[in-house]
Specification:
Radius of gyration: 36 Å
Strand content: over 45%
CATH superfamily of the largest domain: membrane protein fhac: a member of the omp85/tpsb transporter family
Helix content: 10-25%
Structural class: alpha+beta
Largest sheet: 16 strands, antiparallel
Number of helices: 8
Oligomer: single chain
Number of domains: 4
CATH architecture of the largest domain: Beta Barrel
Amino acid sequence: MTPGRIHVTALLLLLAGSLARAEAPRLQVSVSGVSGILKTNIYANLSLQQRRAGGEALDIQTIRRLHRRAEREIRTALQPFGYYRPKIESSLSATGDGWLASYRVEAGRPVRLSRVEIAIRGPGKEDPALQGWRAGFPLQAGEILRQQEYENAKEELLQLLQERGYLERRLERHRIVVDLESYSAAIELTVDTGPRYRFGEVEFRQKILRESLLRQYLPFRPGDPYDADKLLELQRSLSNSGYYQRVEIQPLLDQAENGSIPVTVALEPRKATRYTTGLGYGTDTGPRVSLGIERRYHNRLGYKISGDVKLSEIRQEATARYRIPLERPQSDFSELIAASVNEQTATSSRRTRKIGISANHQLRYLQRTVAITYEIEDYRIAGESDYSALLIPLISLQYVEADNRIHTSRGWRARATLKGAWEQLLSNTSFLQTRFGTTFIHSFGRRGRFISRAEIGISWLAELAELPASQRFFTGGDRSVRGYRYASLGPEDASGRVIGGKHLLTGSVEYEFPVSTNISLATFFDAGNAFDSFNNFTLKQSAGVGLRWFLPVGTLRLDLANAFLEEDRPWRIHLSIGPDM
């Protein structure tokens, strides 16, 4: 074939394609009379609409054929929602540039359920989880038949049966019976659970820790009834342990025999050593820097060693910890601690060295700490220097319930501490001290958030002068009474220098209202003081406004506070960052 003929042939083919496209009429599809999910499902079931939406060029013969099918497809689309007798007006008309397929639909009266018969048979018929599913079944007699909700509930039941270990479950009957004469429907669903399987042997695949320690993480024992939620609990505990970066738990359902399901736990360890650094700033402390090192698994018993140094303008602290997991290692541990703290505030300075041991136990929201420390302190208050040595037993209870401890919408925290020392037991003075603090947060959705704080401290001792700086009460600063410098409030000596007090009382109310997704404005009122007698004390007060910037690591708080009871009515800026709880 010559080049000229090739060009002519190609031109004819292009022309033929253009003519074919020109002959394909433009099509519009319109559904009226219904809305929402009914309209959406009609469009999804109309072949005419689906082929048009797919970009297919339809000739008039195909359009007419699919149009004749449309009424049947509309009826089918409405039946899952209980509408079996719709009135449909359809038309196919020519327009200036194609065709319009129009369908006006009146859904009519829906079919309602006359009976809902659900029976759970077999060994698991009294299982509380299955009874809970039955109580929450979404369709009841008298309601409109909604087939998809029935199918979803049935699939949920089958999934729940597997998660509860009923591997031989069987649906004996499952159907929807529609009676168009009485225009009603019935659901009939019967399931035989079969026997409930149990946990078999658990195989741990890892090399860094003793298996005896890992078995303490198990929330079940071999032979206990199988429950997939227990496997999720195990995965969370191992992931939060700090030892492993990947946790894969696999129930070997296909290898179940004699009613037992074996389980494998594959663990990939984290790097043994972790280094941390941090920078910060607060008006109480000035610039801050921190350095830390942690040995995540010091030995095969899961012991951990960590050390950190925190430096700021007013406080320099070095701490070393040796953590030992206890019987419930996912939440309980014992800790040996050694620390050295230097602190210089406007009212006092101290150097404290301490060693101690603690036992920490967690029970859901409640954390209990029992500790004993030996503290040696050189301190200076109001120009007077002194020295103390104290053996301090301590018990602390902390309760936290919050939807999110970083950014809390609703939550409550309370902490109570009791500690003391006895002069006859390695101490140069005797005292008993208790401290209680609480924080309450409640969100009003887009209307803002209410925050309240309160703290009270009480000391019993003969002479305040015998109490070292670290055990006296001072207040003022970012997280107590704003408008005053950090630790600047408390009883004063004859020359007006703050010396700290036996008791403490502070409170705060605050309201935040959002101005954008991550920023809120705040207004607050603070009151409090440290003092020596509940019969004679004055509460310092302040009020102000603030800006809140919600960051991934916590909330950045910038406050402008006024100590309005003071003669010179001082204003003070406060800046801090940290979690809400």
